[in-house]
Design a protein that fits this description.
Structural class: mainly alpha
Strand order of the largest sheet: 1-4
Strand content: under 5%
Radius of gyration: 18 Å
Order of helices and strands: HHHEHEEHHHE
Distance between the termini: 60 Å
Length: about 220
Amino acid sequence: MSENAKLRLEFLIATAVLGAVIVLMRFDSFRFVGWESSVFIGLPVIMAMIRNLPISELGLSVRNPLKDLKYFLIASLVFLPPFTAAFFIFEHFANNAAITLCVPEGLGKAIAVHFFYFALPEEFLFRGYLQTRFYRITPKLIGPEKLGLPLAAIVCAVIFAFAHVIFDASWYRLLVFFPAVIFGWLRHRTGSILASTLFHGACNVTAFWVSGMFTYLR
């Protein structure tokens, strides 16, 4: 079997296992009990051991932390304002919500949970592992070389979005495709998952904070 064929088979097996995990998480007895994050971290580690991959291959490296932080700050300045505005507009018009400026309860706990329980395991799996392995299958870039977006980032953003739809059974969760594309671009540009994890966590915390400002009208 050629290396490319092995990569395709590996990617299909990993996505099939991920799909099974997401379906299981639909059941109340399996939701948010801690094991899903272990799977998100464990699956790439097991596949890396089977395929004899260095862990740095999966983005767990800090080659240039200043570069990572620079890209995170740029992404935050460019994308968090429209992300926040879109969240306000959607909730106000789609869900008939009034806005009250406030700081939500449990913000400190939410920051820890969204960065370490959600963002880090998800980035390790989707951008660190899946995107990296798909990029090995086809390194095609969309756009100019210096700013181009890998096709692998788009494919993994689609998988990421559908995983959220299956988990929440809500069509609007497809919207996470758009920030996921940015996560993928950050992974590609920096060579690690640090910037994408920070930006992913920042998006989650922003959504948590903004959602705490709404009063839903009947």
